[in-house]
Write a structure and sequence with these properties.
Strands 1-2 form a two-stranded antiparallel sheet. It starts with a helix and ends in a 6-residue tail after the last helix. By secondary structure, the chain is mostly helical. The longest helix has about 70 residues. The chain is rod-shaped and about 105 Å long. β1 and β2 form a beta hairpin. The chain has one domain. The chain has 7 helices and 2 strands. α5 runs antiparallel to α6.
Amino acid sequence: MKSLLKYIFSVLTVKGCGLYLAISFATGLHGQNLETYQIKETHKIDSVVSAFNSKDKLKALSLLPSVSYNFQTGVSVGFSLNNFIQFTQTKKRNKIEAMKLKVTLEEKLKEDIEKAELEKETIELLKDEIVLNIQVLKNRYELYKIAFIKHNNNEITFSDFTTKKINYLEKYNTVFSKISKLDISLLKYKQKYNVVLFDSNDLITNIKMYEIAN
């Protein structure tokens, strides 16, 4: 797909290249990376594991000595070896479980990041395709204007002009639909990863330049 887009782009005019670069710069060609998302999710994992480990602090209360008072012997302090052994064993088990939990969450995060990168690439390829489509649409728009002038000068029939107009509107609506699809993909990406790749408003602005009445 990328190689095809690069080939098409290579045959465009210098103006087309300028349009592509201008839109890409305005919308953010490479978008925002996922570093911030990954860092935040890593912090969440650390917090979950930390909360899991913090249970040991509560179990440490079982090691507190028992204090009793007797009129004959006075105050006595006692320790339970059984409680200490149980606490030590539980602490080891919790440490192992915490390590397993961290590994599981980190593997899941790694999979999410890889999936996010693939989704990002798909979205950016669609944006690149739309930019090229708009450049082609610009040329079709110029041809439509010529047909419009010829029709006004009675150089072509109404039927021929209507056919050209319908063909143009179909091409226009196809590109516009792709932008709508891109907007939906960007919104879903934002909701899923809390990452804004780029703004598609400039694409809308550019295609509106070639809008004609139905």
